[in-house]
């Protein structure tokens, strides 16, 4: 099982459930979460979706071992939705989306915040956008959403440095709505989700639509630019060095790459 689903008080809680892999997204988890969001969007009994993780991580992002196989094995079979399908499901999700980041949030485990309506972080959570350390490009429209959410310089640091961001730093820059003690995180996020879920779904959908509609074209354009840049860089010298170093348990060395690599 890669995802667990539960309903209470019109809140559907989706728990990323690959704790042994720090809830890293393989194709199966991308598909499971995308399907769950599509189902929740159409379910008249669901008013709010809350996403959190099982174990000590929220999500370690894309499963790098699977990414390495995807980059090097021409016969690799991709999932039904994959990463792009999940991002589309997140962008198009019409109801309030709440995330409770219970631990490490890497890659999509961080950039999903740009697509959430409310983000709650455990005080022990840490975030990282590891794109430059993997030799790839941003994702999930973060190149547009992060500057709008936290300002140009905070976004530049988050997206370019591949450095860890603490929960307190995330809150100070505007990535988090609340920072909670670990033992209070899920209860606090759920309480806020239930406040929203008690309201008329039609009104919640209308509010979200009026907030997001002015940005929809820009988000899709950013996603398309990112996907094109990611596809161009994936499997290139820097990306292969990063993935090989990960598989070999060492730090990547980008200084010896060809010029422009």
Automatic annotation (TrEMBL):
Keywords, ordered alphabetically: Isomerase, Peroxisome
Top-level taxon of origin: Bacteria
Coiled coil: none
Compartments, record wording: Peroxisome
GO molecular function, one term: delta(3)-delta(2)-enoyl-CoA isomerase activity
Main location: other
Keyword Membrane: no
CDD domains: crotonase-like
Gene3D superfamilies: 2-enoyl-CoA Hydratase, Chain A, domain 1 (3.90.226.10)
InterPro entries: ClpP/crotonase-like_dom_sf, ECH/Chromodomain_protein, Enoyl-CoA_hydra/iso
The name this protein goes by in its record: Enoyl-CoA hydratase/isomerase family protein
Protein species of origin: Nocardioides faecalis
């Amino acid at each position: 099982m890669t995802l667990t689903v539960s309903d209470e008080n019109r809140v559907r809680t989706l728990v990323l459930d690959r704790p042994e892999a720090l809830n890293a997204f393989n194709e199966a988890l991308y598909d499971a979460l995308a399907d769950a969001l599509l189902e929740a969007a159409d379910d008249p009994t669901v008013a709010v979706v809350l996403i959190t993780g099982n174990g000590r991580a929220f999500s370690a992002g894309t499963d790098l071992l699977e990414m390495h196989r995807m980059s090097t094995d021409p016969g690799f079979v991709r999932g039904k939705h994959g990463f792009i399908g999940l991002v589309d499901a997140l962008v198009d999700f019409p109801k309030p989306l709440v995330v409770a980041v219970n631990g490490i949030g890497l890659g999509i485990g961080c950039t999903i915040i740009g697509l959430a309506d409310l983000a709650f972080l455990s005080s022990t959570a840490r975030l990282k956008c590891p794109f430059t350390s993997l030799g790839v490009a941003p994702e999930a429209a973060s190149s547009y959403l992060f500057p709008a959410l936290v300002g140009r310089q905070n976004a530049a640091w988050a997206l370019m440095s591949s450095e860890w961001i603490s929960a307190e730093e995330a809150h100070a820059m505007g990535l988090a709505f609340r920072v909670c003690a670990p033992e209070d995180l899920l209860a606090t996020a759920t309480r806020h989700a239930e406040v929203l879920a008690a309201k008329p779904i039609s009104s919640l959908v209308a509010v979200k639509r009026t907030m997001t509609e002015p940005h929809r074209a820009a988000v899709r354009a950013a996603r398309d630019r990112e996907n094109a840049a990611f596809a161009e860089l994936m499997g290139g010298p820097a990306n292969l060095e990063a993935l090989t170093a990960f598989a070999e348990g060492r730090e990547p060395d980008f200084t010896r790459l060809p010029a422009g690599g």
